[in-house]
Write a structure and sequence with these properties.
12-stranded antiparallel barrel, Porin, globular, 4-stranded antiparallel beta sheet, mainly beta, 56% strand
Length: 327
């Protein structure tokens, strides 16, 4: 079987009813002969030259509730991501993504759903083999044990409805379907295959946002998002005859959210640090891959914690499912 390697890097704009926020999801996959890939931590693999990758992801966030009475706090947010990637060269891949999101308030006073800002990005892959080199077209199993790196950069396109208003005409930026202006992201990932069945992956990334003036005159700048992630992927079982592989993924990520600003002044009840744990499984068969995981906040240090219900760090859990196929 020819080695199948693919990576997907996503920008998912995950707004909440508390005027925050956004998140990063970075799933990937690799073939039977190559290292495993995490569900969310960014893989270092690139697409084979001339190949296409189709991708879909579901991220459902169920939030805790702080008040006994049903009110307008965030209840459930569902995010779909649809993507298409292309291998320009063995070391350079480009992607385009279209997110769809649905956000539901506990009392159903103002729910929103629709396609949000799409995004585009480029990923460059490198290996360390007596020096830093661009990812080659073909790698042996020995080559796969070298250190691998990827650099990426991209931007969202402000095509979603940033000025979405409730029935009374009020605009809640946290419920909008766009940010009004491009948001820029960049990052670095590194991975190492060892002990035949094990692969370690780490990443560092940032998303920055610009101030946007809404139709009602308010000016909002969402806080920058910094993320450090790590994953350990283990091959549980594989069958070369059926081109099937099952991986166990154990992932963790530290997310630092900057404080949002309104008219240049920091907003209370926004920003802080969150540590997530994400155990999951990935099944790869032939050129297709399916991933399933449950993401939970294990530690938080949120600014004005009690007022951030419905924001990142206040989830009871997040269900993640991914599907991708190379063609």
């Amino acid at each position: 079987m020819n080695r199948l390697s693919a990576v997907v890097l996503l920008l998912a704009c995950c707004a909440s009813t508390a005027a925050a926020h956004h998140g990063v999801a970075s799933p990937g996959m690799a073939g039977l002969e190559g290292p495993g890939a995490p569900l969310e931590t960014t893989s270092t693999a690139t697409l084979p030259a001339g190949s296409w990758l189709g991708y879909a992801k579901l991220d459902r966030a169920d939030f805790t509730t702080d008040a006994a009475l049903r009110d307008d706090e965030g209840d459930v947010s569902t995010f779909w991501m649809f993507g298409l990637g292309y291998g320009v060269t063995p070391w350079l891949s480009v992607y385009a993504f279209a997110p769809y999101q649905a956000k539901v308030a506990e009392d159903n006073s103002f729910n929103t759903a629709g396609f949000a800002d799409p995004s585009v990005l480029a990923v460059a892959g490198f290996v360390w083999d007596g020096g830093l080199h661009r990812t080659p077209a073909n790698e042996s199993l020995d080559d796969m044990e070298d250190w691998h790196f990827s650099l990426w950069a991209g931007s969202s396109l402000p095509l979603g409805d940033a000025d979405l208003a409730d029935p009374d005409g009020a605009i809640d930026p946290g419920m909008s379907l766009g940010f009004g202006k491009p948001s820029l992201q960049s990052g670095l990932a590194v991975s190492k295959m060892f002990a035949d069945r094990w692969t370690a992956v780490a990443e560092f990334s940032r998303i920055g946002f610009s101030e946007y003036e809404y139709d009602d005159g308010q000016k909002v700048r969402f806080g920058a998002e910094w993320r450090v992630g790590a994953a350990l992927c283990a091959r549980l079982w594989s069958s070369a005859a059926s081109s099937t592989r099952l991986d166990l993924n154990l992932e963790g990520s530290l997310l630092r959210l900057g404080r949002d600003e309104s008219d240049g002044v920091g907003d209370l009840g926004t920003g802080g640090d969150i540590l997530y744990a994400l155990p999951g499984l990935r099944l790869t068969r032939g050129r297709a891959s399916f991933g399933l995981g449950l993401k939970v906040p294990t530690w938080t240090d949120l600014n004005e914690d009690t007022t951030q219900q419905g924001a990142e760090g206040k989830e009871s859990s997040r269900l993640l499912m991914t599907f991708s196929t190379l063609f």
